[in-house]
Every structure is written in structure tokens, then in C-alpha cells.
Amino acid sequence: MDETGRRIHLAEAMVREYQREMGHHLMAAACYGSAAHGRADAHSDLEIIVLTDASIEAVNVHTVQYGIQVECDVLPTERLLRAAQIVTIDWGIEADCYRHQWPIWDPTGQFAAIRAASLATPPERFEDALQQSWWSVREWANKVVAMVEAGNQAGAQFTAWQYLYQAALRIALMQQEPYVSLRTLWQEASARGFGVAEMVGALASGDIAHLPDTVRDIQQHTGSWGEPADPEEPFIRPK
Length: 239
Hints:
The chain is built from 10 helices and 5 strands, in the order αββββαααβαααααα. 52% of the residues lie in helices and 14% in strands.
């Protein structure tokens, strides 16, 4: 049995146990993440969503089974339906679980409804998240240049990865297409273009001096996304 099969088999056993415990309160269950995409390897964890009716309290369960780290979200179906249309700056990492699952038990098509809800997210929510992220990505871009000019190699590497992570998330927001996982983020983001591959290469090779050029290239491609009409006008949002 391959690594994806091992995880699906474990998920099926865990869902059977939830069925015995919850009975008719359990509405559906599925894997998401690398197992759902058929890409699991020996280091992959197993991520499960268990959907219930409103009478069951939402919990997040962590365990290790047969050497596999498992994270299981148990939550009411209506809560996941609402979450499927929420767009935050981290949407590019969070949203794959709403759009791609491997159903273990879903007699009434709950996960199809969740995918449909996510795909119907109003475009203005992505625009709002891009505007929120514009400020922080600009700040990190400036920090990268400052660290390189100061000769602070460790600081330049740290700030560059911070900047690049936020730039990758903004690409996902602009394209309205989430990444499969954190583990494959840089491969996926590099394939999307916008200068990401060049900056990943500079960081991987330790070419610190080249970082300001790669930042400027990414900003040239993406910096206008969410840019306010007047950056001097205070941007206020609730904390």
C-alpha cells in the first residue's frame, strides 16, 4: 500500500469510529491536503474534516496513529459552509480544504455544497484581502532592501522569505486559486511566474546581493494589486 493509501485507510477507520460515537449527528467526513490530492509521502500528515449537525461541539483533535500525525477538525456543517466564503490574507493556504477533498463518507453531498460555496465567493472579498495585504508586503519589500544594504545576511534572508511568502499569498488571492499545501508552496508559486522562481533561486543559492533586484521584479508584477488610490489616506480596519 502506498503512502496515500495508508492515510486513506487510516482515515476510513477513524471515521467508522466517529460514526459509532456520533450516530445520526455525523453528516459527512473527508480527507483534505496531500492525501486528498494523492501526493502523500512518508512525511505527510493526515488531515480530516468531520462534519456534524449543530448539536456537536466543534473541536480540533491531534493524534499520532501508526506513526502518522493526524489532525482532525470536527465541526458543524453550517460553520464550514460559512468559512468557505471567508477570504483572509492567508486564503491561499487555507482554502484548498474547501475546494478539494477525498470524501470518506458523504451520503448527502455536503462537500459538493462546500466546494460550490467556495467557488461562488464574491470577487470583492478577494479585492479587500489584496488591499489589506498591500501595506504589509510593501513594508517587507523595503526591509529586504534595507537588510541587504546594511550587509545583514541573516536579516536579509529572514525578511526575504517573509516578503516572498506574502507575495505568494497575494498571487493566490489575485488568481483566486489556492495552493495545495505549505509543503509544495514554493514549487507551485514558482510555476505561477511573477518572478517568484528567480527569488526562490537567489535565496536557495545564498545570493543575497541579488535579492533587491528580485524583490523589485516581483513588485513590478504584483505591487499594484490592491494599491489604494491615495496611500497617504489612512487605511483603517478592525483588529
